[in-house]
Each structure stands twice: as C-alpha cells, then as structure tokens.
Amino acid sequence: MLTQPAQLKMNFLSFMGKGLGYIDVHLLASALLSGFSLWTLD
Q1: Which of 1, 27, 31, 38 has its CA 20 to 30 A from that of 15?
Q2: What pLDDT was estimated at residue 28?
Q3: Is pTM, for the whole model, over 0.70?
Q4: CA 1, CA 34: separation in Å to the nearest integer?
Q5: What are the backbone dihedrals phi and psi of residue 23, each rounded to the nearest 5 degrees, phi first?
Q6: If you ran DSSP here, which 8-state letter would residue 10 be given?
Q7: From the CB of residue 29, how many other CB atoms can be counted at a distance below 10 Å?
C-alpha cells in the first residue's frame, strides 16, 4: 500500500502534459489533503 504522499506524487505525474501547472496541482493537493472542495469557473 502506498503512503498518501506517494499517491499524490503518482497522481501529479499523471497530470503532466495536460495543461496543469505546479500551482494548479498544488491547489488540488491542498484541497484533497484538507478535505475541502475546490470550486472553479473554468
């Protein structure tokens, strides 16, 4: 079983080449770890 940081790193690698930047992925990870929802108008 992978630890949560390892899972997040694997998920981050799957976002490469999809138009998401470091800030985008950082916001997604922060929302995931804190249990909050992330709303966007995009």
Answers
A1: 1
A2: 81
A3: no
A4: 21
A5: -65, -40
A6: H
A7: 16
